[in-house]
Structure formats: C-alpha cells, structure tokens
Amino acid sequence: MLSRLSRPRAAALCALPVVALVAVAALAPLPFTVARPGMTADVLGERDGKPVISVEGARTAPVDGQLRMTTIEATGPDADVRLADVVDGWFRTDEAVMPTDSVYPSGDDVDEIERYNAEQMRQSQDDATEAALGYLGRDPEEVKVTLRLADVGGPSAGLLFSLGIVEKLGTDLAGDAVVAGTGTISPEGAVGTVGGVALKTRAAARDGATVFLVPRAECRDALSELPEGLRLIPVTSLRGAVTSLEALRTGKGDVPSC
Fold first, then answer.
1. Could you tell me the residue range of the domain that residue 203 belongs to?
2. Which class for 45: exposed (0-12), middle (13-18), buried (19 or more C-beta within 10 A)?
3. Against a cut of 0.85, is the pTM above it?
4. Domain of residue 67, CATH code
5. What's a Gene Ontology MF term here (predicted)?
6. Tens digit of pLDDT per residue, the chain (258 long)?
C-alpha cells in the first residue's frame, strides 16, 4: 500500500534535483573568459629601449604627443572559470565576461593560440604599413618601416600602427595630447571592429589618454562604461581618423562623436 506524502515533504523531494543541478553548475568550469583592462603602449615611443616604429628611406618628424594602442587581459582558454566568477564579472565595471570562443577563435590549445595571435599581429603590422604608405602616396620599395611590439598578439593595434607611421612621416596628429584607440586596419585603410572596447577605454584613461578612437560600429559598447574625461571619436577609415585628429588638434573642422 502506498502512503501519500505530505506537501512539505513532497516539495522538499522535488527540490533535491534542482539543488543538485545548481551545485554542479557552481562547481563545473564554464565556457567563459574573464577579461580586464590590459596594458597600453605608445606607438610613437620606445619598447625595450628601441622605437616601436622605425623608418628608413624617408625623413621622420619629431613628435610631442602619444598614440597609445590598447589591450585587454583575459583568462586563458584552459582556465577554470566557475559560476561565481561569471556572476561576479557581470556586476563589476572593471571586468567583462565573454564567451571563450569569442576571445580565442582558434581553439583551446595554448601553443596554437599563441601562434595564431602572433601571426595576426604580423599581418596587422604589414597591413598597417601598406595602409599608411598608401594614404601618404609613398613608395613602399623606397620607404622601409619596422614595427616592434612582439609581446602583444592579435590585429587590434592596426589602426594605431597606421596613425603612428603617418605621424612619424610628418603629419602632426596627436599634437601634445595623449590619444588612444583600437581597431583593425585593412591594406586599403578600412577600420574594423575588435571587441572589448569598454575595457580598453578604461585602460586608456588609466594611462592618461583624453581621446579614444573607436570603430564606429562599437560606439555603443564604448559608451556603456565610458570613463569620465575621455572623448570618443568614431572612425571607419584611416583617412577619417587622420582628418578627425587634425581637426581636433587645430580646432578647425568638425570632429565626429559617438
């Protein structure tokens, strides 16, 4: 003969599987990466005692300001990110929780990721050089550009590399200001999206920037947690970025905003 359970006891028994699932979820690693503001580097300056940008075959101009590329720091693809880390990251302004495959599209093998990021950086530097020399109408066979920033991976510094080359070759862009930014660059000078811009604006402000160049398509993300005193300038091309910075420096012409 079956006995009927009381309502409280039945509810308690039904809750057991739910509690067990919550416990498993809390303890199991999740497919997320926790990212934070990373380092920035002035592409007009030096890295390890050597210029980030060196030019041979053309006269270079002295510079007063800074053009700072920005990065994020992220937990590795093999890191154990738990539910508590994800929840904590959602409520913090100095961290972001991102799907692992959006940060590491090449997979979860650490060595493979490092090779992929290094190759992306090399390609970005080549594209940045081609875009800058093409914009200036310089012959790449007569002007040799060397970029040194080997300890940073990925393509997101492309725009700043191009701007740095343009400035080094005589076009004053930054003036005496600290300008930061992010964005990929194509050989034709088109600026592409990168991700993590809200964290990069924090890194830029931390390191003294007052202006931040952002791919126009990522304006909303950049505005979501914009540090006080940091001005956003949306860009879609190298030419547009140069025009905006010249207008900002001289006070002549319109400077777009997000």
1. 36-73+122-250
2. middle
3. no
4. 3.30.230.10
5. peptidase activity
6. 344 445 555 444 444 444 433 444 444 456 777 889 999 999 999 988 999 999 999 999 999 999 999 999 877 776 666 676 666 656 666 777 777 776 676 566 778 877 887 888 899 999 999 999 999 999 999 999 999 886 677 889 999 999 999 999 999 999 999 999 999 999 999 999 998 999 999 999 999 999 999 999 999 999 999 999 999 999 999 999 999 999 999 999 999 999
